[in-house]
């Protein structure tokens, strides 16, 4: 194992250079070159036809929807879309690739020269370049376990053959595993907002390979790169890169040389293993796909796609921070998914004070969900319920303590806010003399604070309000209480 032997000083002598290749399955109804269903989880080998099985004489027809999705993703990633791109055959033999080649794009991809902005560890921002976005088809799947005779046989499921993919290749601009993690997080977020993919990593809708090398700081020439494959979560990508950087530093520090190779990440052991060296790597013998014409993205399609572009996460956060006076972190929580942000904003619009809706959602509701380990979708309190709570609070019809009690009951009984509110109808004390009596009591037992208040420490009014509210068991009308506390204190 590396890591233990390496001091931070040794590690700091080297600069990591990281590039990422991400494959994303597009959410089209049918496959990229045939009419078979593009669906995860069907019975093996049921969504297949002569085209995706690569039977002789079968001809591919490009799925227009896949082009639209790939174009939308390219534009969202700030890429320049080539008006004319070319499909090419990438030739290799593999059991789950019955055609013996994959239709991909090579020297003329769909889109180029994009970027994603990521937050850096020191609080700044950095643009990571995107070299290209190209379209291709997915291969089938080899099933190595789960069968009685898995020890001696491999099974094939060809349903995935011909699933439309976008491959998104970054520039080698990434310098730390943290930046790699941020890049992937932002990328996934953008793709989810454009709704071109579900980005489900467990189902393989989003897959990531990482290229990593090291070089002495100050040196311009890149070191020999290693490709890490088979990493199925962003957290593991970060761990695999940390491991690989340390391994490479150790090799170089020990006088050795980095071998250009493909390595596999083993999550159980927390390390990478050599899979094959590049000398054995394939020469794919790319050539233009003779059965498909050039892919033309017309100016009409381009402008139609631009019109369909949703507000993207970064822009949405900036707008929401301004509109609801949110912190950066709260804005991230509210925009975690487009659907959630939409629901929040639709609800907030109907409230007297939208900012209060955000506050209640993020503190009262999110806090209780987190304590119970529940996802947002499982919340007993609806957005409409949160709006009701916010309005009641805003109109001083309930105190914040009463609101908290209602939320407690909602989560205990798994009921929405309006139901609990209607049943319990929290009592409010609006009788002036009753409230004044409580304030008098508080004033009588806190002579020191009264003196400080009279000496000019006006903020102490809040202390008296709090004490009197407690005395009223949270039932005093907050507006009235505030008003009377000030009046009483000024009288003394
Ligand atoms: Zn098919």
Overview of the molecule:
- This protein has 492 residues and is of the alpha+beta class.
- It has 17 helices and 16 strands.
- The strands form four sheets. A nine-stranded mixed beta sheet has the order 2-6-7-10-1-11-12-13-14. The chain has a three-stranded antiparallel beta sheet with strand order 5-4-15, with no helix packed on it.
- Helix 5 (234-253) links the parallel strand 12 and strand 13.
- Helix 3 (64-76) crosses helix 6 (299-308), helix 10 (354-372) crosses helix 11 and helix 12 packs across helix 13 (417-424).
- It is elongated and about 95 Å long.
- The N and C termini lie far apart (74 Å).
- Residues 31, 34, 36, 48-49, 51-52, 162 line the site of zinc ion.
- Zinc ion binds next to helix 2.
Low-confidence stretches: none
Mean pLDDT, all residues? 91
Approximate helicity band: 40-55%
Biggest sheet features: 9 strands, mixed
Structural class, by secondary structure, is alpha+beta
Distance between the termini: 74 Å
**What ligands does this structure carry?**
zinc ion
Structure annotation, total helices: 17
How many DSSP-defined strands? 16
Report the portion of residues in β strands: 15-25%
The dominant shape is: elongated
Order of neighbouring strands in the sheet with most strands: 2-6-7-10-1-11-12-13-14
């Amino acid at each position: 194992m590396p890591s233990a032997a390496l001091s931070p000083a040794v590690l700091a002598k080297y600069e990591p250079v990281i590039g990422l290749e991400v494959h994303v399955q597009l959410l089209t109804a049918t496959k990229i070159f045939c009419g078979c269903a593009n669906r995860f989880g069907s019975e093996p080998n049921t969504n297949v036809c002569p085209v995706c099985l690569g039977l002789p004489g079968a001809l591919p027809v490009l799925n227009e929807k896949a082009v639209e999705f790939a174009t939308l993703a390219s534009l969202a990633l700030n890429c320049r879309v080539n008006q004319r791109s070319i499909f090419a055959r990438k030739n290799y033999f593999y059991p789950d690739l019955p055609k013996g080649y994959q239709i991909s794009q090579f020297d003329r991809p769909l889109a180029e020269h994009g970027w994603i902005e990521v937050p850096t560890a020191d609080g700044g921002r950095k643009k990571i370049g995107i070299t290209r976005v190209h379209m291709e088809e997915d291969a089938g799947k080899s099933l190595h376990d789960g069968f009685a005779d898995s020890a001696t046989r491999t099974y094939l499921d060809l349903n995935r053959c011909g699933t439309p993919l976008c491959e998104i290749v970054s520039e080698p601009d990434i310098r730390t595993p943290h930046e790699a993690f941020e890049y992937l997080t932002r990328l996934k977020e953008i793709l989810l907002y454009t709704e071109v993919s579900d980005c489900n990593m467990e189902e393989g809708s989003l897959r990531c390979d990482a290229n990593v090398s090291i070089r002495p700081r100050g040196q311009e020439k890149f070191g020999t790169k290693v490709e890490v494959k088979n990493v199925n979560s962003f957290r593991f990508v970060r761990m695999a890169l940390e491991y690989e950087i340390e391994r490479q530093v150790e090799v170089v520090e020990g006088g050795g040389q980095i071998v250009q190779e493909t390595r596999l990440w083993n999550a159980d052991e927390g390390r990478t293993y050599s899979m094959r060296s590049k000398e054995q790597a394939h020469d794919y013998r790319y050539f233009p796909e003779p059965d498909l014409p050039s892919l033309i993205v017309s100016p009409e399609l381009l402008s139609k796609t631009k019109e369909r572009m949703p507000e993207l996460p970064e822009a949405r956060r900036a707008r929401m921070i301004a509109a609801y006076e949110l912190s950066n972190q709260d804005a991230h929580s509210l925009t975690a998914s487009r659907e959630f942000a939409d629901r929040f904003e639709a609800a907030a619009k109907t409230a007297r004070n939208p900012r209060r809706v955000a506050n209640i959602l993020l503190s009262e509701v999110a806090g209780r969900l987190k304590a119970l380990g529940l996802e947002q979708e499982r919340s007993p309190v609806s957005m409409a319920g949160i709006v009701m709570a916010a309005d009641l609070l805003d109109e001083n019809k309930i105190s914040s303590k009463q609101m908290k009690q209602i939320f407690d009951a909602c989560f205990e009984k798994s009921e929405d806010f309006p139901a609990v509110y209607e049943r319990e109808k929290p009592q409010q004390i609006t009788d002036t003399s009753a409230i004044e009596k409580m304030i008098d009591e508080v004033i009588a037992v806190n002579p020191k604070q009264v003196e400080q208040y009279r000496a000019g420490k006006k903020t102490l009014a809040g202390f008296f309000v709090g004490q009197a509210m407690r005395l009223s068991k949270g039932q005093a009308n907050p507006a009235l209480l505030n008003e009377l506390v000030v009046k009483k204190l000024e009288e003394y």
